[in-house]
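Example 3.
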Amino acid sequence: MTSSDADAALMRRVGDGDRDAFRELVERYQRVVIRTIYRSLGDAWEAEDLAQRVFVQVYRSANRYRPTAKFTTWLFTIVHNTILNEHRRRRRHAAESLDALQQPDPGGESGGWQPADLRAPDPAQAAALRELHEQIGAAIRELPPQQRTAVILCRFEGQSYEEIAATLGCSVPAVKSLLHRARVTLTERLKPFLPGGV
Amino acid sequence: MNCQETQARFDDRLDQRLPDAERTAFDQHVAGCAVCRHQWQTYAGAWGTVHRYAAPEPSFGFAARALRQLDQPVAPAWWPVWRWAVLALVVIALSAGGVIIRAHRAAADRVAFYEEVQQSDCLDDYDVIAHLDQLEGANHL
């Protein structure tokens, strides 16, 4: 049985209200969902909170899932829409966010989380890595939402243009264009952090 | 392959979508052209750097918390957007209802008062009854 068949079988059980199947599905995809949301929003706590909502949405929509579509495509579509909704919500509360930005943030910009290699014993090295991590995160977050999701799915999840197109609901040439524009922006933004960069 | 053709294939080369012959031509051009080599190294280097953006693992008990979320009541999808409008409408409706009920009660009290006065034995003077409104107003003052 392929992974896709196994997902479809699990989803059938989830559609019948089988909570064990739901738990198995969550355990199988929690990492990828949390990672994707985190890379898009840059906040670890919020990524977990939104990931919970994604899985609840999966459970409640399980009856509407048809195995004609790959499960991961369907899942990433929900993830992408959840992220878009969060952006809309943030735009609506832009004034509040600006106020919040002026307050000290006890959790730091990553929502209280730092990658293990940022806790290097050499403080200078750790600081440089932290700076790089923050710059990459900021560069990704500054991309328009469609470009950002395309970058995350392509670079981190290794998805093909066709899979990304299915998730974003656009054509393959549109995905190529999204990725190209995103790469040009990221190159400009990250050039100073490359070896010998200016 | 010239510089323009090479640079137009940066994305396909990064995503390994070039056919073998084109990939060889691309690599040969980049090896021999300092300008394209610099641009390619910057472009590919930035894309490689992006991959260093690590992300957190799920916290302990994430799946169990997701299961618990299933038992939470669901707000309708339109609720976050329209909740303030709905709350405002409810407040307006309650206020309007309150005003209407109060006015209705006042009118009913007034009718009852007139009836009571008209039936009273001790107030035969019709003028007094006719000017009850004014008297009532004076009492309020």
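Helices of chain B lie at 3-7, 10-14, 20-32, 34-50, 62-69, 79-119, 126-130, 132-140. Chain B has a mean pLDDT of 84.
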